[in-house]
Specification:
With 218 residues, this protein is mostly helical. The protein has one domain. 69% of the residues lie in helices and 0% in strands. Helix 1 packs across helix 2, helix 2 runs parallel beside helix 5 and helix 7 runs antiparallel to helix 8. The chain is globular, with a radius of gyration of 17 Å. The N and C termini lie far apart (36 Å).
Length: 218
């Protein structure tokens, strides 16, 4: 364990929350939800992973994202942006996907570091890191009555988060690297896997059931 843990710069954390909240609001707009639906999807997409991490796994008091009002402000801003600019967000789709990939790695690093501070074993810490990164997208899809994106065959999403989280834990625990170095590696690996999956067409495949495998996108 390290005496001084890595802490994600607040500006980056809020930016990731904002981007994820935008994705939730855009989905709500596509589903023609009302203002409550938009707000809920923006909230769960932006902060769902952190709420699951603190409320379900770590249980260390009120979640940090609730104690600091700036996170909820980022959710509100992301929800508003998703609603008012949904018609134009396709022009920024590449930028948003890159930001989403970076946010995936950042949240995986934060989850891994907080799990390490809580002295969870390796696999437990990896689970917390992964949930912190992808939990919001799972909750968003479930609330929309859809099979969560990461369960469907397609682009690497959860795999990218797991790869980044594993890199953090290996470097921080086995190599005794500073947490900041482990976090940088986590972000780089998660971001790289996610971008390469999109760029090179790397896909997961469904299990074969003897009648031929179908094609899907996740």
């Amino acid at each position: 364990m390290h005496a001084a843990g890595f802490h994600l710069p607040l500006a980056l954390d809020l930016a990731a929350t904002l981007v994820f909240a935008i994705t939730g609001a855009v989905v709500a707009r596509e589903k023609r939800f009302d203002v409550i639906g938009v707000a809920v999807l923006a909230l769960v997409a932006g902060l769902g992973g952190a709420l699951l991490r603190d409320g379900l796994f770590l249980q260390s008091g009120p979640p940090a994202v609730i104690r600091d009002g700036r996170y909820l402000a980022a959710v509100l801003a992301g929800g508003a942006a998703g609603v008012w600019f949904a018609a134009h967000l396709h022009r920024l789709s590449l930028l948003i996907r890159l930001a989403d990939a970076a946010g995936l790695g950042l949240y995986a690093a934060v989850g891994a570091q907080k799990a390490t501070e809580a002295e969870l074993p390796f696999l437990g810490a990896l689970l917390v890191a992964s949930v912190n990164a992808v939990g919001g997208s799972v909750l968003r899809d479930l609330l929309c009555g859809e099979v969560p994106l990461l369960f469907r065959p397609g682009e690497w999403y959860a795999i990218a988060a797991i790869g980044g989280g594993a890199a953090f834990l290996v470097l921080a625990r086995l190599a005794r690297a500073p947490d900041a170095v482990a976090a940088a590696a986590c972000v780089a690996i998660a971001f790289g896997l996610r971008v390469l999956s999109v760029r090179l067409g790397w896909r997961t495949a469904p299990f074969r059931d003897g009648r031929g495998a179908g094609k899907g996108r996740g």
